[in-house]
Automatic annotation (TrEMBL):
GO terms for biological process: signal transduction. It comes from Triticum aestivum (Wheat). PANTHER family: SOMATIC EMBRYOGENESIS RECEPTOR KINASE 1. The lineage of its organism: Eukaryota, Viridiplantae, Streptophyta, Embryophyta, Tracheophyta. This is Leucine-rich repeat-containing N-terminal plant-type domain-containing protein. InterPro entries: Leu-rich_rpt, LRR_dom_sf, LRR_N_plant-typ. SUPFAM superfamilies: L domain-like (SSF52058). It comes from the Eukaryota.
């Protein structure tokens, strides 16, 4: 009986290890596909080699204890090109740091599937189209910084669901309309300490005198 129990435990451990390897390989395929979609004039992605066991050995990628990708750190790396929708399959991702590059195209709506994400930093790029409403599904998100892009359209009311959000920075885009009351309510019902929508095409924006919010918000409506 003891031998059977030991064999069962060993088999379970082996299956978990194989699942972790399979997950890592899938994530490696996703990141390599992203590498293929980008222009990398500085060669910062040379280590993103699909022949390695998993992406945990690549530069600018960090993994958790289960060998799943937890961070992608490529701020100010000189990269250009689009973000691929498959990035939304990196289920363990907690930090996506792609700021100060030359990223173009839309923010994939699939990023709303990253339910463990804490920080989404895409600021100072050339991203276009609208802010995906699906970002409001990331309940763990604490930092959403997508300022200094070319994003247009309205601010999704769904962002008001991000009650753990500390910083929401949307300034220096081409956003229109008004700041939804659901988003403004984060000042009262959430943990928001910074909300910046300056230098857009929004109506009714004024500087807040509330101590908790130190930047430009919209608190009047036309």
């Amino acid at each position: 009986m003891a031998a059977q129990t030991g064999a069962a435990v060993l088999l379970a451990s082996l299956l978990l290890a194989l699942a972790a390897i399979a997950s890592s390989n899938t994530e490696g395929d996703i990141l390599y596909a992203q590498r293929q979609a980008w222009n990398d004039p500085n060669g910062v992605l040379q280590s993103w080699d699909p022949t390695l066991a998993n992406p945990c050995y690549w530069f600018h990628v960090s993994c958790n204890n289960e060998n799943s990708v937890a961070r992608v750190d490529l701020g100010n790396a000189g990269i250009s090109g689009p973000l691929i929708p498959k990035l939304g399959q990196l289920k363990s991702l907690r930090y996506m740091e792609l700021y100060e590059n030359k990223m173009s195209g839309p923010i994939p709506a699939t990023l709303g599937n990253l339910k463990r994400l804490i920080s989404l930093d895409l600021y100072s790029n050339h991203l276009t189209s609208t802010i995906p409403a699906s970002l409001g599904n990331i309940g763990s998100l604490r930092f959403l910084r997508i300022h200094r892009n070319k994003l247009a359209g309205g601010i999704p009311a769904s962002l008001g669901c991000l009650t753990k959000l500390l910083r929401l920075e949307l300034q220096e885009n081409m956003l229109t309309g008004t700041v939804p009351p659901e988003v403004l309510s984060l000042v009262l019902v959430g943990e928001l300490t910074k909300l910046n929508v300056a230098e857009n095409n929004l109506t009714g924006t004024v500087r807040s005198s509330k101590q908790k919010v130190t930047t430009v918000i919209q608190d009047t409506f036309n």
